[in-house]
Amino acid sequence: MAQFRFVMRSGPAAGRVYPLEAPDISIGRDNTNMIVINDAEVSRRHARMELRGATYVIQDLGSTNGTFINGSRVSGIQVLNSGDTVSFGEGIVLVYEAAADVNATILSEKAPQTLIQPAAPAPAPAPVPAPIPVPATPPPPVFSGQVPAGPIPMPPATAPKKKKFPVWVIIVLALVLILCACLGFFVIIDQLNLWCKVVPFLVPLLGGTC
User: Could you report the per-residue pLDDT of 77-115, keeping only the tens digit for each?
Assistant: First the structure.
């Protein structure tokens, strides 16, 4: 009886078992190999296995898609342990199993199953009475003449508004200035006797002649 075996997990013959009995085993797509895997990802001579002591070792033979153990690419001679996954490329995955693991699996499947009685449900906890609401303490009344506990906030001071002169005052001042200017103008003309030169059209209105 073989001590070790390969079980194909995924590939062209998923579920197939390959007993490992020879001390030297070749794996590839070519029919001359001891383990033939007819898939495009597998090279004609893909890998080689050799029995050393109590287990096998595996070596990639320069395949195109590589040999991987538990996801790590094999670069030299790699020792196989029971339960390791060996991949050829990406789609071919085999599980390396020892005969002891296989027998243990079979025995565990045939062992009688013990029925587990469901545990009795725990008693429901007693309802907790709702807490009695405590009435809120009303604030103490404030009496006249009572000294406040803290400083009373004062309203923010506002800047005094600037007083604006009424519009009518401005108009009256403007008219007074214009009247004074006109009077000063005519006084200067009269003192210098410039009526005929400056405003000759007013001389006949005033009863004079130029």
Answer: 999 999 999 999 989 999 999 876 544 444 444 444 444
Tell me, what's the pLDDT at 102?
46
Q: What is the maximal distance between C-alpha atoms in the chain?
A: 159
**Cβ partners under 8 Å of residue 25, min gap 6:** 34, 35, 48, 49, 50, 56
Unique residue bearing structure tokens 């001679």: 77
User: What does the alpha-carbon distance between residue 45 and residue 61 come to, in Å, rounded to a whole number?
Assistant: 7
pTM of this prediction? 0.47
Return the number of other C-beta atoms located less than 10 Å from residue 67's C-beta.
Answer: 24
Strands 24-28 and 35-36: parallel
Nearest partner of 47 among 55, 31, 35, judged by Cα: 35
Closest CA to 41 of 71, 18, 62, 64: 64
Confidence of residue 183 (pLDDT cuts 50, 70, 90): confident
Residue in the block written with tokens 């390791």 = 84
Element (H, E) at 95: strand 92-98
